[in-house]
Each structure stands twice: as structure tokens, then as C-alpha cells.
Amino acid sequence: MVEMIRVILDTNVLYAGLYSSRGASYQLLSRIERRELRPVLSTTLLYEYEEVLKRHRVALRLTLKEIEGLLDELCDRAAHHRVHFLWRPQLADPKDDHILELAVASGQTPIITHDTRHFGGAKTFGVRVMTPKKLLERFN
Predict the structure, then answer these.
(1) What is the pLDDT of residue 34?
(2) What is the CATH number of domain 5-137?
(3) At what angle do helices 24-33 and 11-19 cross, to 10 degrees?
């Protein structure tokens, strides 16, 4: 059995993939649905997803029930990790530190984001940061 590529999706990638079915973010979500990619989650990241999706549910054209179902499906396909050690502060945006900490705790899982410049400190920990488009190039 081939092991799925494990990735951490920044919230902006999840949002973009749900907002439009035309871009690389949507393609990544489709690969998760087909179990070709395995998202890595922490409780903190899951709560962030929930808060952002519910706050923007009108723009996303989703009901609260649809968001809950989507997050349940994402959890079903995900590898879950606890973060036992905090490395704060490391990043320019302190709101992103929990994502870097998850990447370190899960064995240097790559972070997929549209804001790669926010994760400049990830290199210190050997964590790769890339855009959805860059990750998709690995499949071609």
C-alpha cells in the first residue's frame, strides 16, 4: 500500500478550495476526498477552520450543518497530532505559530499555504512550506 502524502493545510487553503472549484486549493481538497493526500490536524487548527468557515459561511454558500459535515469528513481522513511543546514566538504572525508547532510535532510535515512569506521561520525546524500549486506539481 502506498503511503499518502501528509500535509498541513493553512486555513487560507481550505477556505480558497471551498470558495472556488477552479484553483489548486480545490484540487488539493479533491485529493483529500479521494484519499490521495492526508491532512494533519491538531485541535487548535480544527477550531480555527471551524471559526473561519462559520464566520464566512455566507460567502462560501454553506450552511452551519454543511460546515460541520465537511469538518467531520476532514477529521475522518486526517492524522491527528497533539502539540506538547510550544516554540513561540517564531513567525512574523503569531497566529500562525500553532501551525508551525503542529508541523514540528508531526515530524516536519509540509505546510501548504498561500502566504509562504508568513512562515519564514519554518526552515529553522526543517519544515517545508509551499503553495498548493507547488504541491500539485509533485503529482504530475
Answers:
(1) 92
(2) 3.40.50.1010
(3) 90
